[in-house]
Amino acid sequence: MSLLALRCVQGDKLNQDRRKTILAAVRPLGVERLTNVLSPEFRLVFCHSLAAVQDQIRSDIDAIVCGTNFDESRMFELLQTLKSDIRYSAIPFVCVRVLDGVLHEATYASVRKACILMGASAFYDLAQARADMGKAEAAKAFRSMLHQLMNAHS
Question: Source organism's superkingdom (predicted)?
């Protein structure tokens, strides 16, 4: 998996697939959780590094979901890079806390504010939502939010 961690791991590759495509920029530990939460409703393209995202990004991506710990905490760098590129700036970009971390909740509140100020469409704390409302409801709320953002974009 270490070699694959440097490259994008693409989900379902069927040409007739009509599902919306989400580029998920997360560290390898987040792949299983996001797959459980988002598929089979969405087609997922996983990237584990900034370079992999730059290789894989296309204008037909419907949304970008980026984990707070993506590529050694390069979420803000990816957000700034894509929002400053006219080809991708309109694609909904959602920052997400996928897994529990060691930071204090007040720190995540600051991360949420910074994401929005930098142009992210939303910040979703999946880890906290799972604790607050349970796995199924947290996943449902996340999928609903993504659908709303993508529908507003198209």
Answer: Bacteria
- Signed CA dihedral, 12, 123, 48, 56: sign only: positive
- Residue boundaries of the structural domains of the chain: 2-153
Looking at the structure, give the CATH architecture of the domain made up of residues 2-153: 3-Layer(aba) Sandwich (3.40)
pLDDT in tens, 92-108: 999 999 877 666 667 77
**DSSP string over 83-149:** HTSTTTTTS-EEEEE-S--SS-HHHHHHHHHHHHHTT-SEEEEHHHHHHHH-HHHHHHHHHHHHHHH
Q: Find where tokens 């979703």 sit.
A: 124
* DSSP-derived 3-state class of residue 40: coil
Helix, strand, or coil (residue 33):
helix
Q: CB 68: neighbour CB atoms within 10 A?
A: 24
Using CA atoms, how far apart are residues 48 and 111, in angstroms rounded to an integer? 20
Q: pLDDT by residue (tens digit) across 25-47? A: 999 989 999 999 998 899 999 99
